[in-house]
Amino acid sequence: MLLRDGIVRMLEAYGFDVVAAVDNGPDLVKELVGQRPDVAVVDVRLPPTYTDEGLRAALTARAEIPGLPVLVLSQYVERLYARELLADGAGGIGYLLKDRVSDIDEFIDAVRRVAAGGTALDPTVVAKLMDSREHIVSLTQLTAREREVLGHMAQGRSNAAIGTALFITEKAVAKHTNNIFAKLGLQSSEDDNRRVLAVLRYLDG
Amino acid sequence: MIVLAGVAAALCAAAAVYLFRLFLRMVPGRRRWLAATATFGAGLATVDLIVWVATGGGYFWPAWTILGLSALLSLHAWIVSRPPGRRERELAARVGTLTRSRSEALDRQAAELKRVERDLHDGAQARMVSLALTLGLAGRMVRHDPDGAERLLDEARSTARAALDDLRAVMHSIHPPVLADRGLGDAVRALVLDLAVPVTVTGEAPSGLNAATETAAYFAVAECLSNVVKHSGATAAEVTFADRLITVTDDGTGGADLAAGTGLRGIADRLDAVDARLEVDSPPGGPTRIVLRIPI
Q: Which of B98, B138, B260, B288 could cross-link to B152 by cystine, CB 3.0-4.6 Å?
């Protein structure tokens, strides 16, 4: 409730046009399918069940409208849910801890990225992956640097942003990403889609 | 002879009264019925003797009824003193188990609450205090040192995040969110995604479990898998749901023992409280196979 009003205010302040704000799963599906917004910000837990109603609503709506951009917020992040959200490979998915809202610039940036069809996975999910995914065959073929780049890709960063974060040139990042796509056996297609698939491969482990 | 019978009648009457009062005091059960029989016998003997005395004696016919009553009483006493049957022994054992597991469950719960209290106190609460302090300072600095205030606000924000991280960790240790959202099957699926050993999950988790059983089963599987990662040296593990059985197998070095160490014992005790059972088959050299039996 409190958070919803806050986010609506914040989005409006940053020039977004908020077409609907609802407080339960069924209404959410109706609005998502009916209004077809450019991007939706959704809480995982919603009435009436207060379980994963929001997540299910997002998945239902995306089944109707493939690639409908959804940014899911939650009090906790689970890889299982991240995987379910990304499973259709259509992109336009964000999955962040609610705390991230406090960093307004980053949050607004994430909303824009998701609206543009990119991904924005919470660093916590990515960090967990870094710790536990050492054994995955397809990922062990990646060098430490490439894994690092993949981690940033999962968070939805552009090559330029990854370059800044790792203190390397954008060209070097592009080389790494091409190596990652090749090693994960992702055929060249539309670049954005490959990025989503690489992240998905990463999550599947 | 008449006088003797009168004394005997008085004694029988006293015995009947005593036995009746005993009957009233006793807890319901087999021995109480014996007291009832004895009261009835003593009462009937008293009446017989009084009737014999009142009719002027003669042939001592009450001897037969008294003999019969004695035989009846002896038979009843014999039945009562017989060792308990199979069913009764089972029930007694069950009461013993319940008493023990209940007290263990209460102990564990108390210890768990204490841990949660300490975690909250040392973590989130401490950070909240520091947060309030930082915000207070920032408020006082905002006019004469806006830059300093901004720095403090940044600090406050990261403290708030750290407090949220702490709260999340505590909540996760009490009841994992996916377990609340989706139940046992997906909770285990979510759990194995974060493990360093690849674990496959097959089958459908039993549905319709009560919350206590589901939580106990979840933490049991979690502990088993944590053992797999920490001790087994396994390269792969599997969790199989089949009806009311959950099986955790790994290809590690084996040697897991219910009697040794506290980990498995802890799981077994925790499962005991919800009537679930743990079976461990882990020969030296492996593989290890742990079966959880969940009651219907």
A: B138
